[in-house]
Each structure stands twice: as C-alpha cells, then as structure tokens.
Amino acid sequence: MSAARNLSELLTGGTEITIVCHNNPDPDCLASALALGRIAADAGIDERHILYSGDISHQQNRAFVNLLDIDLRPFETEAVVDRRPDSLLAFVDHSVPGDNNDVPAGTRVDVVIDHHPADGVDATFVDRREAVGACATILTEYLRKLDVDVDPVLATALLVAIRTETLAFLRGVTPAEYDAAGFLHDLADQETLRRLVAPSVTGETLDTIATAIGNRTVARSVLVSGVGRTGERDALPQAADYLATLEGVETAIVFGIVRDAIHVSARSPDPRIHAGEVLHAAFEDVGSAGGHHDVAGGQVPLGIFADDTADDASLLTLVDEVVTARLFDALAIDEGER
User: Fold this and answer.
1) Which residues belong to any copy of the DHHA1 domain (predicted)?
2) Environment class of residue 85 by beta-carbon count within 10 Å: exposed (0-12), middle (13-18) or buried (19+)?
3) Fewer CB within 10 Å of terminal CB in the chain, N or C?
C-alpha cells in the first residue's frame, strides 16, 4: 500500500488533527500544513488546527499567509499534550518534538512528513525523504494519489513552496519537483503567484544585507559575516543567499542576534562542505544546528554570553569573535588564514 493510502487510513480513524509547524514557518511548512489539513478533511476529520511558534517575519512568508488567508493559531502546549485519544498530532517539514518546535520532548506524534535529516523520529506514520527537494512535493503526491480536490489557493501555496524551497528550481531539485509543479501550474492563481514570488522588501532587510556585506570575512572560499542585532530574522538567510553568489565564495555563513538568541544561516553550493554538519559541529554543545549539505541553520541562546559582559557593545563584540572562531574551527580553517 502506498504512503498516501496508509496516511488516509490513519486519518480516517481520527476526529481531530493538530498540525504543528516548525518555529518561524516558511512557505514549504505552511503549504504542507494546509495540504495535510485538506487531506484530513477529505478523510472525514472536521476539527483541524494549524499551530506555529516564533515569528512569520520574512516578507514573503507574511504575504503568503495574508494573501492565501491561511488560518494559523499560536502554539499552545495544552493543545498537543492534553489531547483526546482520537485526536491526532502531525508534524510537517520537521520531525522530532523539541527540535525546532515547542512541543515537549517525548510527546506522542502520529504523523511525520519531512524531507530534512533527523535522528530519533518516532510516529505512527512517518514519510521522511531526504532526497526530495521540498516537503510540499510529498504532499502534492498524496493529493494526486488520493484524488483530493486541489483548488487555486492550495495549488498556489504548494507551487510557491516548491519554487521557494528549491530557489526557483536551482537548489536540491529532483524530477519529483518538476512533476509536482507541472500538475499545480494550471490549477494555481497566476496573479497571486506573481505577487508571492516577488514581494516587497523591508528597509531593515536591506540594511541587514548591507551590514553582512560590510562585515564579511573571507578565508579560502568561505565567507563568514556577523550583522549584530536585527529585528528581521529572515534577513539572515537572504543575506547568506546573496553573499554565496560573490565571486570566489563557495560557502556563506551569516549570523546575528534576534531578541534573546543568536541565529545562524549557511549556504554552501560547494560539494566538499556539508553546511548542516559544519553548523552542528560548531554549536552542538551550546545550541541546536543542522540541515542539508547546501542549506543549514542554527540557534544559540544568548544567555551563555550575557553574563560575561556588562554592556551591549562588548556583548556584540564577544558574540562576533566567538561565533566566527567556532565556525572557522568547524571548517578546519586556521587562524592565520582568516
């Protein structure tokens, strides 16, 4: 029996489903949650909830939610811990309680659909395909195999998700993405699609990218840059995407302080470097980090630095020095090469 049929059978036995997005959800996570909700509705589940933690700060992500009118609710621990026996809990685009989500470790999970590397995945239904370019690709396959109606809103969401996750079909793309996109193209709302593909950019995002350019340090073909404090968490991956296109740069890593944590974003077209493993090695003892060979991210609580300095300027300097050193050490680049 196909994964789609197995999922449908599991959903048929439930009366409620809570779909938890990962922290600060992106279009791939949001579209996948929307699609799973539609599949659950087709299976007869009337109570469906999509929860998220963190921020939806990237301009494209905000436009995505607003233009597609996605019904999201802030995460509440009680909604996943104190649920009924016939209430299902699902993860899309992430896999493990407590890892890039606010679900308490050890919570029973019923459905996991993901395309990221992960250890310790435990759920009644698991479909995790690291070779696939987007989680939305997997959900599109389910919709087609289960013959679930795909309206323009859902088609637009999934198509934007696949396009965004693969950097317009230039990163990590497989034949499955092209097949899914071909199916979705004629069903999508083309005007909404155009508006979502090229949303407006905030001034703070441009300032953050400019700061990353100005603060860059390059050793061999690796670029590392700290931007200090920023209110635009999603400006960090945008800066990394841009800096990775500079001549002579094969790996770009950008970090900055967002509220009470240091966020790190890496991009590495270089096949010799696994960005996820580099970030994991750099920060596994102080935070959480990982990802694919070409795209990765991490987060370190600022509290481990806060007690070591009295003023913000000194804190920023300390963070810049320590994070930069950890990254170059993880990349085996000696101090004399920096």
Assistant:
1) 221-302
2) exposed
3) N
Rounded to whole angstroms, how far apart are CA atoms 274 and 320?
22
Architecture category of domain 204-337 in CATH? Roll (3.10)
Domain ranges of the chain: 3-197, 204-337
Beta strands in 281-326 (DSSP E): 288-291, 295-301
Closest CA relative to residue 292, chosen from 130, 127, 112, 99: 130
Highest CATH level, class, for 3-197: alpha beta
261-267/295-301 β-pairing = antiparallel
Alpha carbons 4 and 249: distance in angstroms, whole number: 41
Straight-line distance from the first to the last Cα atom of the chain, in angstroms, rounded to the nearest whole number: 54
CA dist 4 and 11 (Å) reads 11
The H or E element that residue 127 is part of is strand 125-128
- For the chain, what is the total number of helices (H) and then of strands (E)? 13, 12
Q: How far is CA 64 from the centre of its chain?
A: 14
CA angle 161/165/167 to nearest 5° reads 115
Which residue positions in the chain have pLDDT lower than 70? 1, 199-200, 306-310
| 289: helix, strand or coil | strand
With H, G, I as helix, E, B as strand and everything else as coil, classify residue 91.
strand
Reduced DSSP (H G I as helix, E B as strand, rest coil) percent helix, strand, coil of the chain, to 5: 40, 20, 40
Report DSSP letters for 208-248, one per residue. Answer: HHHHHHHT-EEETTEEEEEEEE-S-TTHHHHHHHHHTTSTT
Contact 90, 18 (CB under 8 A): yes
pLDDT tens-digit profile of 54-75?
878 777 777 888 878 788 899 9
Among 95, 82, 78, 84, which residue's Cα sits nearest to residue 21? 95
Q: What is the pLDDT of residues 182-227, one digit of tens each?
A: 999 999 999 998 888 776 677 888 999 999 999 999 999 999 999 9
Contacts within 8 Å (CB) and 24+ apart, 176-179 = 176/132, 176/133, 176/137, 176/141, 177/132, 177/133, 177/134, 177/137
